Amino acid sequence: MNMQELIIKKRNGGELSQAEIDWLVRGISDHSLPDYQIAAWAMAVYFQGMSDRETRDLTMAMAFSGDVLDLSGIPGIKVDKHSTGGVGDKTTLVILPLVAAAGVPVAKMSGRGLGHTGGTIDKLESIPGFKVEQDRPAFIKQVKEIKAAVIAQSGNLVPADKRLYAIRDVTGTVESIPLIASSVMSKKIAAGAEGILLDVKVGRGAFMKDLEQAVQLAGTMVRIGAGAGRRVVAVLSDMNQPLGRAVGNALEVKEAIQTLMGQGPADLEEACCYLAAHMLMLGGRFTRLPEAQNWVKEALREGRGLLKLQEIVASQGGCLDFTQPGYGLPEAPLQYAWPSSRSGFIGAWDALQVGITAARLGAGRERLDDPIDPAVGVELCKKTGDPVQENEVLAIIHARREGDLEAACRSLEEALRIDDTVPEPRPLIIETVS
Fold it and tell me: Of 261, 293, 379, 421, which is least packed with CB atoms within 10 Å of its CB?
């Protein structure tokens, strides 16, 4: 085969065969194809798109371009979850122990945060002693014994996607639905899950800002999963304001613990209950959503998820101290209560700008090898629709240096809108695709 011919075929709107896609992916993996030709093909896909069959073939070829995790030795239907990224999205820290407490095995590989969105691995690493690196036998053994483990993505998993994504990132071809869908699903399929829940965030703080495109992405990923013999459900959820109140690694772990105690923010609890219920259905524990949701809510009240989180943390070498208000998590040396300049109602918290504020404090990174500060971040004291009085505290800024506090205040000014009337409420759960 000839790469130039494949580029021209796709440029002209043609459909690549499975054999052509397999050859292409091999060339990406073994570096026999140069970056510039892969970039040209990605740009052709950006403009011409791919059929469902092409997208599925690309997904499967990338999924099997390297190591594939074999979870067959773990009893039960193994489930996994993927979020397309958001601000304050600590749902995995709540959902994973709840699902495991119901006896459904969750073998999860997670990533680190980049830009304004946080990563589950960074949050877990803010727990003193928590080990995110495990060899595969230990990972599988932990899932067998306590039904859950979460580790960093490592090894030779989906090497074709790693190279293709790096090229897309610098050539303006990231925002292609077939390429996004195949990237996400290839990793999930290679990680061995049989049931996959996709949390597709939509709004200012999300990767997908347009609802129509988010629905298209969700549908594409669900169809890929079905074609690959996986059960997949995609939930579209709002990300115009941060989820919950905490934005920052240790702050989000603390809020996840409080949610598992039944004391979390209402929006975070709502999202977690809905997502966890779908995971329980994917895992065969329930057949009807209301029954699954009732079980999750009862488990929250009874603290079953909290006990399971403690098991997971202990199994991976971490330590949470429940005799302390902050559970032994890192705490920033400076906290500043940022006051409101006027009375009214919170009209909007721009999730993107809040995420940028936390990242600039040190909670995020621009490159994957940048260090992060686990203690810093922002806690929102008011959410969209809440009334506020002049000089009432809107947010608490957790910072390392005085200069960071001043910059964060200016940044939050850009994120906040205060109105004279109550804004129209937005639904948290927008749509479910299955």
Answer: 421
Q: pLDDT digit string (tens) for 42-80?
A: 999 999 999 999 999 999 999 999 999 999 999 999 999
Which amino acid is present at 17? S
Task: Give, in order, the Cα–Cα distances in Å from 157 to each of 14, 24, 270.
Answer: 30, 18, 33
Which of the 8 DSSP states describes residue 206? S
Task: Identify the pLDDT of residue 229.
Answer: 93
Residue 157 near residue 139, CB atoms below 8 Å? no
Q: Strand runs (DSSP E) across 111-240, as ranges?
A: 148-152, 195-202, 231-238
Structure tokens belonging to residue 19: 């054999």
Question: Cα separations (Å) of 43 from 7, 37, 48, 319?
Answer: 9, 10, 9, 47
Length of the chain equals: 434
3-class DSSP assignment, residue 166: helix
Q: Cα separation of 262 and 183, whole Å?
A: 35
Residues 6+ apart with CB under 8 A from 92: 81, 83, 108, 110, 120, 150
Q: How much is the mean pLDDT over the chain?
A: 95
Q: What are phi and psi of 43, to 5 degrees?
A: -65, -40
pTM of the model: 0.93
So what's the pLDDT on residue 207? 84
* Pairing of the two strands 106-110 and 148-152: parallel
Residues with a catalytic annotation lie at 82, 161, 168, 183, 187
Q: What is the DSSP letter of 208?
A: B
In this predicted structure, which of 21-35, 60-74, 285-299, 361-375 has the lowest mean pLDDT?
361-375
Q: What mean pLDDT comes out for the span 323-337? A: 96
